[in-house]
Design a protein that fits this description.
Layout (H helix, E strand, L loop, with lengths): L2 E3 L2 H8 L6 H10 L3 E5 H10 L6 H13 L3 E4 L3 H13 L11
Parallel strand pairs: 1-2, 2-3
Helix pairs in contact: 1-2, 3-4
Length: 102
């Protein structure tokens, strides 16, 4: 089975029809058959990005949709995972990765 990691960029592209990456994200979402791995940190970022009052309902819809999707493996954000993320972030100064994605 194929496994992919979904970051905040992907979910924001899906949620926003005006996003330049929206068509590609929708195409991927419609055709991918496998497991999508994401983290609670990504969901926090998604909620933060859509926190303004006009977007709040959309944020909650997406958070509920992702959390309820049986093809999504939602990785909890514990101290161990955060520590590993900080170490990856430290080890790769050549990358423009966010700490959330690490």
């Amino acid at each position: 089975m194929t496994v992919v990691f979904a970051d905040t960029f992907y979910y924001l592209a899906l949620a926003n029809p005006r996003d330049a990456a929206h068509p590609a994200a929708r195409q991927f979402s419609a055709t991918f058959r496998g497991t999508v791995v994401t983290t609670w940190a990504v969901l926090l970022e998604l909620g933060d990005a859509l926190c303004q009052v006009p977007n709040r309902a959309k944020a909650l819809e997406w958070l509920d949709l992702i959390r309820g999707d049986p093809s999504v493996e939602l990785v909890p954000l514990g101290e161990e995972l955060l520590t590993e993320g900080v170490e990856l972030y430290r080890a790769r100064p050549d990358k423009d990765w966010s700490l959330t994605d690490c």
